[in-house]
Amino acid sequence: MYLRPVRFVDTPIGLPDGGALRLAGGMLWFAAYEVRERGGERTIVPVEAFEPWVASLSPAKAERARLLHRRITAPRAPLMLGERVLRFDQPQVMAILNVTPDSFSDGGRHVDDPAGAAAVGLAMAAAGAALIDLGGESTKPGAATVWEGDEIARVVPVVERLAAAGVAISVDTRKAAVMTATLAAGAHLVNDVAALAYDPRALAVVASSGCPVVLMHSPAPAQGPHGGDGYHDPLLDVFDWLEARVEAVVAAGVDRAKIVVDPGIGFGKALSDNLALVNGLALFHGLGCPVLLGASRKRIIGALSNEAPADERLGGSVALALAGVERGAQIVRVHDVAETVQAIRVWRGLRDAALVAP
Length: 358
Hints:
Blueprint: E1 2-9, E2 21-22, E3 29-36, E4 43-46, H1 50-55, H2 59-73, E5 79-81, E6 84-86, E7 92-98, H3 114-126, E8 131-135, H4 148-164, E9 169-172, H5 176-185, E10 189-192, H6 202-209, E11 213-216, H7 234-251, E12 259-262, H8 271-279, E13 292-293, H9 299-304, H10 314-326, E14 331-334, H11 337-356
Parallel strand pairs: 7-8, 7-14, 8-9, 9-10, 10-11, 11-12, 13-14
Antiparallel strand pairs: 1-3, 2-3, 3-4, 5-6
């Protein structure tokens, strides 16, 4: 069984008691669930009718429905990132900073220049990014695997500079040695496109360190981020994969409250898959974890806009970020920080005004 919050409303004011619920302690209110089961029809259940509906189910289904309901409506605990606190009562921006020669959008700009890269990271933080996501290995299709020693040499000097300036830092890596080195240098969070399933040592590193972690979906993480054979139902398949992965990571000793989930837009997915995942993003709140959306400058935008190159995808990137926020994304991972922060601030102003409107 799957529950997806639907029928979002600007405000619960004027609705019957219990007529709308707050999504994960954030700024969105929803008035119904779309209920799905594999091979079954979709059903819409208004939230005020949820308990009578649950009472009509078998015990096993009722237990599953109540579990998903609790996870969807429970506020997400903030993450402690050094001296900074990342709260999820409003959307947050994660800034992309690559120190690679071959990343699809900004590769080569900051290679062998840790001072320059750190300066860019500081500027992103000043522009409103809540944390800087630093990557030393490209994960674009066809990119070569980087030796962990080279990856460490690329990212650690930048981490040290950013940490000294008090910036919250996540490190985008699949490798345990890189995780260990960057956490020791002052990084606060691991963002793994392989969900700790590429390097057999990675899970132990995260569990022993106690750091927060982003688990991203990719179809075959042990082989690389862009494999897989397609999906029967991309939304439900990705949910099932992430649910199993979260449970495995929790069983290995990672606090569930420190796990963020990412459906992996663009990783082993066709255009139709990516569109389904963005449209259905609220479903992932059934995992009980903060939801991250990373769609900035990705192929989905070029496919929908006359093959616009990566450096001409600002409008599409902001549109996808706002689409994610409207569907419950608590973190959006972006290249264009100032523009996205501005868009989200305007969005928040509209939400705030709707809540207090007569």
